[in-house]
């Protein structure tokens, strides 16, 4: 299967650049990434900092359950929910096993130890390896 099909892109939609070699494409990609980083650092950083300041001000001044709405502008509301913070993983795992309470855990297998297990020739019951293509781009 082609990379375009795996990415759900129509093959004809992938721009063909027969006059550019891979070195030129990588060079242009790195230049575009550098330009994006410059724009993000100059523009987005200050905007994100200001957004955080405004959000923190509202968090400090709104009461839980309070809603503020302005027609044509928007609405904000303050809520609060309890989230878990595990203090003793051994005790938690023991509780989960004893009470068959695996619903407390998210269903995701950690990839790094899984790949390490596969490299030893072993397999993990109920798990099948799936290849995922990733493009790694680093500046040199």
SSE order and pairing:
Blueprint: H1 3-6, H2 22-61, E1 67-70, E2 74-77, H3 89-98, H4 111-119
Antiparallel strand pairs: 1-2
- Based on helices, strands and strand pairing, what is the structural class? mainly alpha
- DSSP summary: helix tally: 4
SS strand fraction: 5-15%
SSE run: HHEEHH
Overall geometric form:
flat
The value of Rg in angstroms is 25 Å
Extended strand count: 2
Task: Indicate the low-confidence ranges by residue numbers.
Answer: none
Strand adjacency order, main sheet: 1-2
* Largest sheet, strands/sense/barrel: 2 strands, antiparallel
Mean pLDDT: 85
Gap between N and C termini, in Å? 31 Å
**Helix content, binned percent:** 40-55%
Structure notes:
With 140 residues, the chain is mainly alpha-helical. Helix content is 45%, strand content 6%. It has 4 helices and 2 strands; from the N terminus they run ααββαα. It has helices spanning 3-6, 22-61, 89-98, 111-119; strands at 67-70, 74-77. The chain has a two-stranded antiparallel sheet with strand order 1-2. Strand 1 and strand 2 (74-77) form a beta hairpin. The protein starts with a helix and ends in a 21-residue tail after the last helix. The mean pLDDT is 85.
Notable characteristics:
single chain; 4 helices
At a glance:
This protein has helices at residues 3-6, 22-61, 89-98, 111-119; strands at residues 67-70, 74-77.
């Amino acid at each position: 299967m082609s990379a375009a099909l795996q990415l759900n892109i129509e093959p004809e939609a992938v721009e063909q650049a027969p006059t550019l070699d891979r070195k030129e494409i990588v060079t242009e990609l790195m230049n575009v990434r550098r330009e994006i980083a410059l724009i993000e650092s100059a523009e987005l950083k200050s905007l994100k900092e200001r957004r955080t300041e405004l959000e923190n001000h509202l968090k400090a001044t709104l009461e839980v359950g309070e809603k503020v709405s302005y027609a044509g502008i928007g609405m904000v509301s303050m809520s609060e929910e309890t989230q878990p913070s595990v203090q003793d993983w051994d005790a938690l795992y023991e509780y989960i096993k004893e009470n068959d309470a695996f619903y407390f855990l998210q269903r995701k297998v950690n990839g790094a130890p899984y790949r390490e297990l596969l490299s030893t020739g072993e397999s993990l019951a109920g798990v099948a390896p799936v290849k995922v293509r990733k493009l790694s781009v680093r500046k040199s």
